[in-house]
Amino acid sequence: YTSGRINTRGKFARARGRFEARIRLPLGRGLWPAFWLLGADHETVGWPACGEIDIMEYRGQEPNIVHGSLHGPGYSGGGAITGRFTLPGNGFDAAFHTFAVEWDENSIAWFVDGQVYQRRTPADLPSGARWVFDRPFFIVLNLAVGGNYVGPPDEDTQFPRTMLVDWVRVYRP
Catalytic residue at 62? Predict the structure, then answer.
């Protein structure tokens, strides 16, 4: 299987503001599309010290659920700070939806189609953990196939699959 990724590393990075994209997600076990931000200093400080903001993560076998997460030192991988949004009715594969975060100095809020479903602040971090969301981040859009989070595709997963991105927008704070 082949996964695909595009990013703005070395071309565009910003600290704070509103980051949003209108996306139609694929259906199928083992598909892992995501729209996320990674600290632009990741090559010098490493992950998770650089920070990661998952604006939207999706498991193709759960067509009505998306997740939004923060990763940083002391809260990464399986210990990320995460919330989920469940779409009533048809799944995220049936139509385009807008996924966004609004990020300021003291909080990050996640939205699906204009509806906020979680807000995180430094108070949500584990004791002694550091809020690393005070520097520029670049944008990543990807469709991964397989991985620990979603498992492998099965015989019902049809290929090729596409994560359709209509647009991406970033607004200054």
Answer: no
